Structure formats: structure tokens, C-alpha cells
């Protein structure tokens, strides 16, 4: 998923504080690497590395990040490797200085890389975000050097051209030396990006923030102004409008940031950005207790228990020092971390029939471990429920699940649920499903769109490709998915090696930290 943030403060204020705090608020979107870049008197100050935000930034690093404007990133790798060379933001020095942080995934990467080679750009990593930055640089160069395209307009033209060239899911924040802060999203609006403002302390001037989630804005006291709009469709070649994005020029009116695009109709968010509720199931008669799989599933489990009228109990203690397992980069690490993260409270399981509720089952790593733990703790029968429907198709837009082979549900049809339950050790498995006669994803769509509208979001459609295999962009067909699978096979060893630094960080901290109190 990755988390991105951009901050534009009043001239004499420092951007690094809000950037750092926003990254902490977005930490759950990426645990692999973190980075912040600011601009100070025409120079970029950058610090990035592998690790969690608190590990990457100490007082010394934060002090060096001077300036009133900056962008930041927390990374969950979906392209290239986990190497710290691919931590973000990325930077190029021509035209001017440009830096970019990206959430999402580009499809058709080989073609874009070939194009860049032809245009004499050097790529130093396997990251698709570096490709995006170089495309932006090329387009800025051709537009900024045209005498008829001045300032903001030339930046908008450049972004429009980039949108035309790139397929996939991408939400980006960028800084251009001498121009300011820029934010844009892919034409389908697959990845989220919100923006807001607050009054600078002791001043009547506003400061602005763009972030992957409105939660980061709320946490820092920014008033939510809306989503960064996705253009209605990929704009035609060399067109000036509608603008997809606008820069906030340093020294110029901050209000320019408000012109962050038009025409959000059709914006399409990916369902994984939302938590939703499971419906009661007819098999509720012998369930004694509903137990959530912390953290994300709590809301779904609570609603499920309420609807089934069965007691809700917190049956797992969560180790607060272990992060999200699904976004860890290697299967061995994910498996080990589920055990480190959750431990069963025996009295909640002993002699009971339990319904474990999770928000989703993807590879089945969490469910198989959790079910095992529930049995070890003395549960009589263990049922497993997923608030999301079966995840059967790869995600190519910024979630690291590029092959169907690794997805538990892809190995079983709707008629083979008992076999699937056996694979993960459950007595039965339940998925969110529509009432008879209703199209499969209707309820799910309706509930997410209702909640999004209540939050003032402009989302009108959802990318449900993981459930139905329908991809909204071009280039994603059987051949493309096949090539991703081959690439994944070739790179598997890589990702396990790169996970070592995370194992190191996860292991020693918890016990020591607790004892120190
Ligand atoms: O079937 P899997 O491949 O295991 O993936 C699904 C699990 O991963 C996520 O949890 P995660 O530990 O990442 O985060 P959380 O603490 O927010 O629930 C999600 O909430 C499920 O529990
Ligand atoms: N999860 C993401 O959004 C990843 C961004 C980018 N594709 C990377 O791998 O760094
Ligand atoms: Mg979970």
C-alpha cells in the first residue's frame, strides 16, 4: 500500500515535524522503509532508510531536514526489491531538482523502461517509482522549456502527459525546486490521496497537507478539504485540461494548492482501503463466542457478534511491537511474525466452539496459524470467517500479491469450501456473501461507497479485481499476469534475504522494552 505525505508550511515554519508525525500515523501502510525530503533555500535535504519511522529518524536526522516544504514516504515494496536503495522519496536533478514519493504499482513496466532508455534516462534501481519520477522529469523538461508554457500550466501539461503514458495505480506527491508541492493520482483514482489545511500557529496563514489517508490529516489537526481528484479519463496528448494536479508555488499564494484537479467522476478506490462488515450466517447455532483476529478485524468481528447475538471476546493478546504481518516482505517472516504478534488467552478458548473473524484471508498465513493456536488453547471447534469475499486474483496496483498461486482461495471453488477449511485446519470456513439472487459484490460495494460518501469522498466506483479478476487499466491480461508470476518465482530468494533486517528489528525489542518500565 505505502503511505505518502506532502506538507507546505508557512515560510518561517519547519515542515519536518508534521511530516514525521504524519508518517507515524501512516506507519501501518508500510513498515519496510521510511524517508523524508525537505527543501531548504534551493537544496533538498533527504534522509531515508530501511526500517520503521521511529528507527529511521532520530533527533539528528530530523534536525537536518530543514525547510518549510517537504514530502515523506513509508514503504511496502511491490516492485523491485526491499533494498534501502529503493526507499523513497526518489530524486533527480534535471530539470531543476525533482523528488517524488509514490503509492501504487505501474503495469507494463518493461515498455516504460525501454522508452526511458531511448530518452537517455538512467535507472539505478528496479523500482517503478523511479520510472515514474523519470517520466515526470522528461515531461517537465519538454514543457518547462517551451516558451509558451509558463509556470503552473507547464507543470499541469507535464502531469497530464505522464498520466497518458503510465498505466496502473498511482498516487504521488512530488516537489519541484522553485515550483513547490505537486500531488496527483492515476486516472482511475485507484490509490487514495486526501488533502487539507490548518492555520499555522499564531498566524492567519494556512499550511497544507496531502496524505494517503484522512486519518493522518485528522491526527495533526488539518481540516479535510477532500480527495485529490483523479482526472475523468487519461487526458489526450498535450492537452491543458482538465488539470490533474497543480503545484503550490513557494512564495506564491497557497491557494494554488486548492486547485488539485477536477472531474472526479468514476474515481475508483481499491476495496482493500476499507474495512467492512460480515453478515450473520445460518451456521451460528453452536458457536459459543466470536473472537477477532487483531488488529484490523475488530470492527468486523464486533458487528458480526452483535448480529449473531453471540458474546464477543478478545481472545488474543497482541504484542504491540510487532507490526502488520501481511505487508512483510517474505513468507518465512510473515509466518514467524503471526506467532510473535498474537498469543491466545487460554480461558477464552478452553472447551468452547469459537468463531474467529478476520477482515480478509489472503495467503492464509494468519488463519492457519491462528486456528492452530486456538486448538492448542483448548478450543472444541474452530470456525473461521472472512469479512471479505474469497481473494482469488492477483493485485497489480500496489498490493504485493502478484500471483494467484499464492492466494489460498484461488485453489478452491465455492463448492470446495470444506477442502479449503481442511487446508487451514478449520472445522468450517465462511466468507462474506450476498443474499441469494444478489450479484456477488453488490453489498460490499454499496457499504464501502456509503461510508466513503459519508466521509465526503468523491469515490464512485471500486477496483474489485482481487475478487472478480476484472482489471480497470489496459495491459493487464493473461500474458501480463503470467510474466509477473515468472518474475516472482525468479526473485523469491531475494525477498527472503532482504527480510533479515526486519527479523533483527522485531526480535530483541519487545521483552527488553517491557522490562525497562
Ligand atoms: O491471509 P493472510 O495472507 O495472512 O492475510 C490476511 C491477514 O493479514 C492482515 O493482517 P495484518 O497482520 O497484516 O495486520 P492487522 O494487525 O492490521 O490485522 C489482515 O488483517 C489479515 O489478518
Ligand atoms: N506499496 C506501494 O505503494 C509500493 C510503491 C512502489 N511500487 C514500491 O515498490 O516501492
Ligand atoms: Mg490481520
UniProtKB/TrEMBL annotation:
Q: Report the protein name in the record.
A: Amidophosphoribosyltransferase
Q: How is the cofactor bound?
A: Binds 1 Mg(2+) ion per subunit.
Q: Which residues form the active site?
A: 2 (nucleophile)
- The segment(s) forming the Glutamine amidotransferase type-2 domain are 2-263
| Cofactor(s) for this UniProt protein | Mg(2+)
**What is its EC class?**
transferase
Q: Which InterPro entries match?
A: GATase_2_dom (IPR017932), Ntn_hydrolases_N (IPR029055), PRTase-like (IPR029057), PRTase_dom (IPR000836), PurF (IPR005854)
- Pathway involvement? Purine metabolism; IMP biosynthesis via de novo pathway; N(1)-(5-phospho-D-ribosyl)glycinamide from 5-phospho-alpha-D-ribose 1-diphosphate: step 1/2
Please give the Gene Ontology molecular function terms for this protein: amidophosphoribosyltransferase activity; metal ion binding
Catalytic activity field: 5-phospho-beta-D-ribosylamine + L-glutamate + diphosphate = 5-phospho-alpha-D-ribose 1-diphosphate + L-glutamine + H2O
Q: Where does Mg(2+) bind?
A: 296, 358-359
EC identifiers of the protein: 2.4.2.14
- In the UniProt record, does the keyword Metal-binding occur? yes
Give one GO biological process term. Answer: purine nucleotide biosynthetic process
Family statement: In the C-terminal section; belongs to the purine/pyrimidine phosphoribosyltransferase family.
Q: What keywords is this UniProt entry annotated with?
A: Glutamine amidotransferase, Glycosyltransferase, Magnesium, Metal-binding, Purine biosynthesis, Transferase
Amino acid at each position: 500500500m505505502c503511505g505518502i505525505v506532502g506538507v507546505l508550511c508557512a515560510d518561517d515554519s519547519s515542515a519536518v515535524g508534521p511530516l514525521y508525525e504524519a508518517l507515524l500515523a501512516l506507519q501501518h501502510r508500510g513498515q519496510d522503509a521510511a524517508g523524508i525530503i525537505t527543501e531548504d533555500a534551493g537544496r533538498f535535504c533527504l534522509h531515508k532508510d530501511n526500517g520503521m519511522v521511529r528507527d529511521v529518524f532520530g533527533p539528528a536526522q530530523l534536525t537536518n531536514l530543514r525547510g518549510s516544504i517537504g514530502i515523506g514516504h513509508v514503504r511496502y515494496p511491490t516492485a523491485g526489491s526491499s533494498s534501502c536503495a529503493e526507499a523513497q522519496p526518489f530524486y533527480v536533478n534535471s530539470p531543476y531538482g525533482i523528488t517524488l514519493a509514490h503509492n501504487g504499482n505501474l503495469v507494463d513496466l518493461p515498455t516504460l523502461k525501454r522508452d526511458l532508455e531511448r530518452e537517455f534516462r538512467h535507472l539505478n534501481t528496479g523500482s517503478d517509482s523511479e520510472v515514474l519520477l523519470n517520466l515526470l522529469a522528461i515531461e517537465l523538461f519538454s514543457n518547462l522549456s517551451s516558451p509558451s508554457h509558463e509556470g503552473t500550466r507547464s507543470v499541469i501539461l507535464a502531469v497530464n502527459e505522464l498520466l497518458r503514458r503510465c498505466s496502473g495505480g498511482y498516487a504521488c506527491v512530488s516537489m519541484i525546486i522553485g515550483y513547490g508541492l505537486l500531488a496527483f493520482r492515476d486516472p482511475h483514482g485507484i490509490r487514495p490521496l486526501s488533502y487539507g489545511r490548518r492555520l499555522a500557529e499564531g498566524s492567519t496563514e494556512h499550511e497544507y497537507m496531502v496524505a494517503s489517508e484522512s486519518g493522518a490529516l485528522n491526527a495533526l489537526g488539518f481540516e479535510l478539504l477532500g480527495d485529490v481528484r483523479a482526472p475523468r479519463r487519461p487526458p489526450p496528448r498535450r492537452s491543458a485540461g482538465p488539470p490533474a494536479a497543480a503545484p503550490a508555488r513557494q512564495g506564491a499564494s497557497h491557494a494554488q494548492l486548492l486547485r488539485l484537479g477536477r472531474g472526479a467522476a468514476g474515481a475508483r478506490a481499491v476495496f482493500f482501503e476499507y474495512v467492512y462488515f460480515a453478515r450473520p450466517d445460518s451456521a451460528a447455532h453452536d458457536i459459543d463466542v466470536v473472537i477477532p483476529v487483531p488488529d484490523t478485524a475488530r470492527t468486523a468481528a464486533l458487528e458480526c457478534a452483535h448480529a449473531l447475538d453471540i458474546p464477543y471476546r478478545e481472545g488474543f493478546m497482541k504484542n504491540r511491537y510487532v507490526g502488520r504481518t501481511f505487508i512483510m516482505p517474505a513468507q518465512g517472516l510473515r509466518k514467524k511474525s503471526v506467532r510473535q504478534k498474537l498469543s491466545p488467552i487460554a480461558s477464552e478458548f478452553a472447551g468452547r466452539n469459537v468463531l474467529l473473524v478476520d477482515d480478509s484471508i489472503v495467503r492464509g498465513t494468519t488463519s492457519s496459524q491462528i486456528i492452530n493456536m486456538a486448538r492448542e488453547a483448548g478450543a472444541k471447534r474452530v470456525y473461521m470467517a472472512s469479512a471479505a469475499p474469497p481473494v482469488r486474483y492477483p493485485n497489480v496496483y500496489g498490493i504485493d500479491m502478484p500471483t494467484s498461486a499464492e492466494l489460498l482461495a484461488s485453489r478452491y471453488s465455492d463448492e470446495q469450501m470444506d477442502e479449503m477449511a481442511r487446508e487451514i485446519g478449520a472445522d468450517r470456513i465462511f466468507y462474506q456473501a450476498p443474499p441469494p439472487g444478489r450479484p456477488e459484490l453488490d453489498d460490499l460495494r454499496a457499504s464501502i461507497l456509503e461510508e466513503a460518501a459519508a466521509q465526503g469522498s468523491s469515490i464512485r466506483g471500486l477496483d474489485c479485481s482481487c475478487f472478480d479478476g476484472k482489471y480497470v487499466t489496459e495491459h493487464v491480461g493473461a500474458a501480463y499476469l503470467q510474466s509477473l508470476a515468472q518474475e516472482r518465482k525468479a526473485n523469491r530468494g531475494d525477498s527472503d534475504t532482504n527480510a533479515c533486517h526486519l527479523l533483527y528489528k522485531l526480535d530483541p525489542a519487545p521483552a527488553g522494552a517491557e522490562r525497562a518500565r
